[in-house]
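Researcher: If only I could read backbone structure tokens as easily as an amino acid sequence. Walk me, if you will, through where the backbone shape changes along the chain. I have put the entry right below:
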Amino acid sequence: MTKTLDYYNNSAEIYNEVTFNIDFENKQTLLLKYLQPGSHILDLGCGSGRDSKVFIEKGYKVTAVDGSKELCKIASENIGQTVICQTFDQLEASNEYDGVWACASLLHLPTHELKEILLKIERALKPNGYFYATFKYGEFEGERDGRFFNDFTETSFNQLLVNFPSLIIEELEVTVDVIPGREDVKWLNAIIKKIF
């Protein structure tokens, strides 16, 4: 994860320019339609703060977290509140959040670490809470473009969640990348519910 965080620290300004103004409403709605107004959302790996800003403007309580110090500085300015700088493994909340938003963040974890973080997310969610996550679509796991990536298909993601009986998949959707020029990149979008 260190190399991936170095990538984001070194590319924070460019990453902000490329991602912050993307219209991501269709994906945000995937989670928000399950949440009550004013619900508490954890934006886990918030990047530039694009989605946190939208959630805050819509009246949700948001805790924004990212592991990149440089992105935390930028995101804090973008959303008008302090972004917590911590890595996924430092998540220690219990029954605190109505929703967890992990957009293109958990995909940087190898499978064995991802399982540990899913346990932490499961604990952090309230019963009947919802969790959104996206992964690049495919079967690759390893380094690509200076970062670690762990891709999933519908089948492999279902297999991943077999060990989490309290987490059930509500929706799985494959979509095309929203960044112009990257229409050949597909994403797996998942909505997961904590049932107990």
Remarks:
- Strands lie at 40-44, 61-66, 84-85, 97-102, 125-136, 141-144, 147-150, 167-176, 186-194.
